[in-house]
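Structure ticket #2291
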Amino acid sequence: MHLKSEEIQLNMGPQHPSTHGVLRLMLTLDGEVVVEAVPDIGYLHRGTEKLAELRNYVQFITLTDRLDYITAMMNNMVYVQAVEKLLGLVPTERAEFIRVVCCELNRIASHLLFIGTFGLDVGASTPFLYCFREREKILDLFEMLCGARLTYSYFRIGGLSADLPPGFVETTRQFVKELPRTLDENDELLTFNKIFLARTQQVGVLAPEEAVSYGVSGPPLRASGVPMDVRKDDSYSVYDRFDFKVVTCPEGDCFARYRVRVDEVRESLKIVEQALDMIPDGEIMTKVPKTIRPAAGEAYARVESSRGDLGCYIISDGSSSPYRLKWRGPSFVNLGVIAHMIKGWKVADVVAILGSIDIVLGEVDR
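Resolution: structure written out below.
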């Protein structure tokens, strides 16, 4: 006679920050094995896309910060680029290079947060402290730029809100020089740790054809061996002037998604260093109408955020506010594959698999 266990329902979340924000995972378990998983979202919904219709084009910049609040600079970037397309504006060269510096520093800060919290997910606490220490240095730089440490509103339609402050370039160069040493220390503590490897290697494998089918982008896609990066494939701003590589891993497991982000930090450091050398003199703002009223039409802009392909679609009816705005959040799309990825794994693995996707619920719910 075969013994049959009774399936049970288990709710993981929503609580913050234990399950990566206000996400609820409804798990059906056979013992400790996940038979079915249903993600339940919407607990953080604020109607951001609808709010765009009630504000003028400049006012909405501050709301973009609240979507993926870990990489607010890139939210600023994709939105102002969409509006600039509507207006036919070309930002100044100086503004473009400074924007790249800000976006890549923000990517590094986001990946450092991921590395630290992913270590916590599987029981490692020391790397978390190391990563937060380095992330604080980036937030100090952003505070020098705009006075804020999380929601920046630094970019403007046509340029930037302020020029680089005295000492910013020198401090950034020092940071770029010092961070690789911390990454090496992190490798010794976490990357080559036997327990960490046992918890992440061959866990939550996502095949490349599955990743493409689900519309996955960013590090989870590249960790499945697909070399897709908006900075290369649909280059924007001045990214075509920099020498950097698209990091990929063929394994498609949790460890590959971790490793891709670690290596991307090193590539972003290269971009920042090149951009600092190439920043030209000149104005930080191009000529922009006092009241922004784009002609009736539509525009779409996309950037490579730290979570993937981030897009902003705007329809203008000729007024001072968008007629319609749609946000393509990579966290929302990437989360769609979670039910497929965790099926058949144990509850302890669910935390590692979810953490390896690196979602931000502000961007999921909007």
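Closing remark: The chain has one domain: 43-327.
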